[in-house]
Each structure stands twice: as C-alpha cells, then as structure tokens.
Amino acid sequence: MREGGKGFLWQAFRTTFKANYIHGLLVIVSVVAGAFISTLPSLILRTIVDESLLMGGGGLWLLAFTYLGAVLLIGLNDLAREYGAMVFGQRMLLNLRSQMLSFLRVLPISYYNNTPAGETMARFTADIDAINSLFSAGLVTAIADLFKIIGFLSALFLLSRPLGVVAICALPVLYIVTDYFRRNIYQKQLAVRRKVSDINTAIHEIYSGIKVIKVYGRERRFAELFEPTLESHRVAMNANSVYDAWFPCLTQTIRAVVIATALSIGASNNLTFLALGLSLGTLAAAADLFIRLFEPIEAISGEMQTVQQAMAGISRVEAFFQQETEKKESTQDAAVPSENVEVVIKDIFFSYGGGDVLHGASVSIPAGSKAAIAGRTGSGKTTLMNLVAGLYPAKRGHVKVGGLDPHTLPPDQRRRLVGIVPQTVHIFNASVHENVTLRDDRINHVKVQEALETVGLWPTIQHLPQGVDTQLGEGAQQLSHGQTQLLSLARAIVTDPPLLLLDELTSGLDTLTERQVLAAIRGISEKRTILTISHRLSGIIDADMVHIMEGGKIVESGRPEALAQREGWYSIYKRLEDRGWRIS
Fold first, then answer.
1. Are the C-beta atoms of residues 404 and 556 closer than 8 Å to each other?
2. Contact present, 425 and 488 (Cβ < 8 Å)
3. Are 99 and 11 in contact (CB under 8 A)?
4. Separation of alpha carbons 320 and 366, rounded Å
5. Which of 184, 311, 441, 516 has the fewest CB atoms in 10 Å of its CB?
6. Nearest-5° angle of CA 442, CA 447, CA 452?
7. Cα(128)–Cα(508) distance, rounded to whole angstroms?
8. Rg (CA), the chain
9. pLDDT band, residue 573 (cuts 50/70/90)
10. Bridge partners for 547 per DSSP
11. Percentages (nearest 5) of helix, strand, coil residues in the chain
C-alpha cells in the first residue's frame, strides 16, 4: 500500500513548483500585492472628496486619473495572478495524472476485476479536474481574497478604529454562517461525486454491451434502468444547490446591516453618543471599503464550492492511492530461458477474496511437452492458468516456469517467458503492428512479420489497405473471429517465449478456421512447452498429457489414450461428449 495515500498532492505540488517556479512566484507576489493595491481606490476617493470637492483644492483631474490608474493596476495584478495560477494548475494536473497512471501499473489484477471501469475513469477525469480547479482558481483566488480582506480591514482601522471594530465584529457572524454552509456543501459534493461515478459506470457498461443490447432489442429497458441513476444525480445536485442559493443571500443581508451600522456611527449627528463626526470623504472611503470588503467575502462563497468540490475529489483520489499494490520480490537480474521450460505447480491454494478456488493443486509439465488441463466450468482451470501467467500471486504453494516465479518477473521479462492466448481476444483501437507489439518499441517490423507469417495471417494482412499499419479499431471489423484468434496468437509468440498458454483457443471456430489455427499451433510448437486449457476434450490440441481438474484440484493425469482405456474422469467426460452432451 502507498504509505498513507496522502502524499500524492504534496508530491505533485513540489514537482510542479520545481519545474514552474516562475509561475508559482508570480502567483505568490500578485496575491500579496493585491492586499495593498486593492485599498488604493478607496483611499484616493477620500482625498478626492475631502480636498478637491469640499475644500475646493486643485488637482482633481490628476486625482481622477490616479484613481483610474489604481483600478487598472488592480486589474493587471488580477490578470497576473490568474495567468500564473492557470499555467501552474494545468502543469500540476499533468503531474497528478502521471502519478495516477504510474500507480495503475503497480495495482494487482484484482483491482481491475473488482473496480468498475467507470469509477476509475471518474477518478482520472471529474475528480482530477476538481483538484485542478483548486490550484488554478478556487484555492488561489480564495487566498487572494483573504489577503484583500486583511488589506481592507487594515485600511478601515487606518481611517477610524471604531469602524475597524465594526468590521471585525461582523467576521464571527460571517464565520459561523460560512462554516455551516462549508460543512454541508462538502457532504453534498461528496454525494454528487458518487453519483457522477455511478453514471460513468452505467454508461461504460451500456456502451461495452451495446451490440448485445441492440441484438435483443433491449434499448428501452436499459434506458429505464439508467433513469434512476440520473434521477439520483439530479436529487443530489438539487440538495447541493439549496445551500449554494442561500449562502450569497445571507452574506448580502449581513453586508447591508454592517454598512448601515458603520455609516450611522461615523455620522456627525446620529442621536447617540457614538457619533464620530467623520468627514464626508472618510465616510465615502469607509463605505467603499465595506463594499469592497464584502465582495471577496461573497466571492468566497463560490470559491468555497470549488474548494469543497476539490476536497471531495481529493478524498476519492486519496482512496485510489490507498489501494493495495502488488508485492513482488525483485528478480530483475534473472536470466529468462529461451526454449523448453518446465512448469512446476506445487500445492497451490488461491482465492479471489472469498473461499479458496484452488485447493492444493499440483502438476508438473515437462520441458518441450504439450499438456492440457480439462474440466468443467468453475473447476479452476483458468485460475490456474492465470497463476502460471503471473497475473496473481499464490496464496500458498508455488508456481515455477523454468525455475522462475512468473509473478515476480518484470513485465518485459515475463512476456519473453510466457505467451498467452486468452479465450476472449481484445483488439485495441490501433494498427495491426501495434496490436501485435502492444506498443513495445523493442519489437521491430521484421519480428512482427515473422510472427504473422508463422500463424498464417500474413497474406490476409497484406491485403488490408495499409498492411500492418492498417488501423483496426475496437472489434477489428476487417478481420473474422478466427483471424483475430490468429492475431492474438501472433501477439503471444512475437517475443518468442518458451511457454505458450492457450485458453479455449478453438472455442467458437468453424471447422476450416479451427484447422488453420491448429496448423499454426503445430507450426510453433517446436522448442516450446504448450499448456492448453479446455472444458471440452475435443478442444485439446495434440496433448502428450491430459490433466483433469475438479474442485480446484488435479484429480486425474495421464496420456489421452491411457486415460480413455480406464474408468475415471477422462473416460466419463469422453463418453458424455461422444453422446453429444456438453460438459459445463
């Protein structure tokens, strides 16, 4: 587990500041300078009223242009702050997503099995965007407004200490109101984030299964199932909007009361002993300062919402970084054998988090042999193959391929040791070349062509519009189901691994395509150990040894012809298949 999971934000900030310190310093300087610059128009207004208008002094035009210059200076200072914050925030956004992508690489396969894709997508998009707004707008602007508030309070005390006290007395009321809304908005924003994640998950599920949905005409039903998810998001947004609507109303009411109180106290005759008798220019400046004081306070209401959205996003991204990572002992310097590896599975126990799926399974596959593991659906065949492929660590026992534990190998070494052809072939939205190499730059064009020629797919690829550079797209509409199986086989052998794992390779193939696939397998079997997984005995490919699996254990092993002659699991399965029964 990443320690605490809370250092991701500080790490991204530190990395971004080192690379973009000029923009960071620009933000800091403009925020601090804004506290002083923002008070200048009010102080100049006092001089204009008291000296030029009431006293008849000269220099009115000069003071007027000075006032305009001060307003322009405030705008330029805000521009510098927004520019620096935006650039800094975007660079930090890049660093955060890079951190998350790096963290994805060390998450175990169980994370991908148990976490909906939509939820992970929401972490990378909506949650990270919310955090980005914290640094590009929300937090920086809120801090700038706090500095402005300090500057306005200081200016009020400079004009009149009692007026400064009035402003200070208003702050506890504002704090109580703000804190109440802050806590409630935070909870509502968390609820909104969860609903956004639910929407993303539902959309991803519908999009992934859209062909099945359309084939069975279930569009309306899935739309109806999606409506409650949208409705729950609407309810969550409305609950949040109630607090967003009330907050500025209350702050404006407080502002009106405070300004009225301040002007009454500062007047020369208010029928009380608190009449300060301040000059008209001072009262005008004080009124202007109070208005300016409440502008950042009211703005903080919107910024507070941004900050709360960001905090909700931070908590969700923090939970992502607290996921358990793969614990591997480094075998970086291990020499990967290039041919004829022995596979040893000894007393393997494994579970996906509940009860054990494998219960002490043991089997030894000699180097250079072709072995098959057969059994009913749910007997543990594919799980055992996944352990041999190094996707999961064993709970107890060990798996050795050529004397190495495949789970502890770095990905590039594992790919050179084990090639796997899964039952369900995934074609990426990329070229034929990239689908074979999986964007591994160490695999050149010559190796790709050799792999495609070996499996018999090269002539087909040559007839595509751009050959190996043809973009296939998800689903590979240009290729048949059997041809995608051959492409997956080429992907497995392009690094020339000494062990091949085949999961239900001929499932769903017609007779002609099945013969083509089997011919390809026989052509690449020299100097390789091949392990085939099948729930049908007819799907076993030229096996030297067959191992029958039941209940997470190997219950029977032997040569196919010997097993067929004696009463046991193999002979029972064979008789059932011969009579047309399907083993499941």
1. no
2. yes
3. yes
4. 42
5. 441
6. 135
7. 42
8. 35
9. low
10. 373, 557
11. 65, 10, 25
In the chain the domains, ranked by start, together with CATH numbers, are: 8-321 (1.20.1560.10), 343-578 (3.40.50.300)
* Sign of the alpha-carbon torsion through 311, 312, 316, 322: positive
- Per-residue pLDDT of 453-508, as tens digits, reads 888 888 888 888 888 888 887 655 678 877 888 888 889 888 888 998 988 776 66
Report pTM. Answer: 0.63
DSSP letter at 438?
Answer: T
d(CA 523, CA 452): 12
How far is residue 333's CA from residue 352's CA, in Å, rounded to a whole number? 30
Residue position matching structure tokens 């995934």 = 426
347: alpha, beta or left? (left if phi > 0; alpha if psi -120 to 50): left
Q: What is the DSSP letter of 404?
A: B
CB 521 within 8 A of CB 455: no
Mean pLDDT computed over 12-32: 88
d(CA 81, CA 85): 6
557 pLDDT more than 90: no
pLDDT at 353: 74
The residues, any chain, with a CB within 8 Å of residue 567's CB and separated by 6 or more, are: none
Beta strand spans in 462-583 (E):
499-503, 529-534, 545-550, 553-558
* Cβ 516 vs Cβ 340: under 8 Å: no
Q: What is the pLDDT of residues 398-407, one digit of tens each?
A: 899 888 888 8
pLDDT band (50, 70, 90) for residue 332: low
| pLDDT tier, 294 (very low <50, low <70, confident <90, very high otherwise) | confident
Rounded to the nearest 10°, the torsion over CA 135, 139, 145, 150 is -120
Q: Name which residue leads in pLDDT, 35 or 8.
A: 35
Q: What is the pLDDT of residue 2?
A: 46
Q: Which helix (H) or strand (E) holds 345?
A: strand 343-351
Q: Report the amino acid identity of residue 554.
A: I
Any idea which residue has 């390789």 for tokens? 528
CA angle 288, 290, 293 (to 5 degrees): 110
DSSP states of 173-188: HHHHHHHHHHHHHHHH
The answer to whether 444 and 436 have CB atoms below 8 angstroms apart is: no
pLDDT at residue 73, as a whole number: 93
Euclidean distance between the first and final Cα of the chain, in Å? 39
Q: Whole-angstrom Cα distance, residue 92 to residue 138? A: 14
State the sign of the Cα–Cα–Cα–Cα dihedral 444, 445, 448, 454: negative
CA distances (Å), origin 30, targets 14, 23, 71, 74, 306: 20, 11, 15, 10, 21
Q: What is the mean pLDDT of the chain?
A: 81
Q: Where are the beta strands (DSSP E) in 352-443?
A: 356-365, 370-375, 396-401, 418-421
The DSSP secondary-structure symbol of 431 reads: B
